[in-house]
Amino acid sequence: MLTATLRPAGSARPHRLVEKVLLVERHDDIELDAPVQQLADLELSLGDVEAPVEAFEAPVGQVVDSILADGPERLSLFRDRIEDDRTGNSERFSSFKSAVATEEKNRHWFRNVGLAADRDPFDYEFFKQSQLEMCGSFAAIDISADAADIPVPDDSTDFVLHSHVWEHLPNPLIALDEWVRVTRSGGYLFVIVPKRDAAVSDKDRPVTSLPSLVQLFEKKRRGEAFPPEERGMGRGHYTVFSPSLLREIGHWFNQSHARARLEEIAFQETDDKVGNGHTIVWQVRKYSAAFGFIRAVFGRFLALFLGKK
């Protein structure tokens, strides 16, 4: 059950409705008893205080005068009515907050992608048990799909995050293409891959070469063209990564794709999650067809120019 995590585009913050609720809630905490206390003070001290009425206060004064015309009893009734309204509104507000909380809980801010039991029962059970042993819980799969073929629209995701997943995919560059496709411009790819000696089975294997990955990408195959010495065993690692290979992949992507670019914004030689991998974070940039064409032409001219020097 290898999973990559997607966050739907536009969900970087809580829903605007929730923001408004939090704002109202803070005001409600401050002013909850204010109207009752102010009216009680007015009832006790009325007649002892005289103050000039400003023009903008006149309507308020008229309301107060009409209430007081029948004596302080009516003021008490008015106070009680406000208290009843406040209580009723408080109950309605609590119900509203509860409904919002339920909506927020049910909303999928993050979606895990992987091979669920319906796609690969053995794979699902194997990695489920691995997660339970290491973490005490497992990440439920929201989208049952291959990591290189995710059924979500283009540009629909804020970021794709995966840790110790990429090396298990037979064709890493096809998967990279897919992650860029689903990520919006300005979004991120957050990647952690194991160090070359993190797995015992990788210690004696050479670091995978970029040309072999490009060959797979161009033929769009799923691992059958791997040289025997670079082939993963069963559900083991197909690719042995290194910091230089990660950066070579980023450079290759930028040279071979005119309408998208990967900008490295963070790198860790040793990840701060477990400490047995490398971390790289790319920001995805996407361009229009016209701008992409200009980039491609300029890139070709630059390559020819540098080649002649």
Write the SSE topology.
Elements: E1 4-8, H1 16-31, H2 34-45, H3 58-68, H4 72-106, E2 111-114, H5 121-135, E3 143-144, E4 157-163, H6 172-182, E5 183-194, H7 210-219, H8 243-256, E6 260-268, E7 277-286, H9 289-308
Parallel strand pairs: 2-3, 4-5
Antiparallel strand pairs: 1-2, 1-4, 5-7, 6-7
Helix pairs in contact: 2-4
Provide a short characterization of the protein structure.
The protein is α/β, with parallel strands linked by helices and about 300 residues long. Helices cover about 45% and strands about 15% of the residues. It has helices spanning about 15-30, 35-45, 60-70, 70-105, 120-135, 170-180, 210-220, 245-255, 290-309, and strands at about 5-10, 110-115, 145, 155-165, 185-195, 260-270, 275-285.
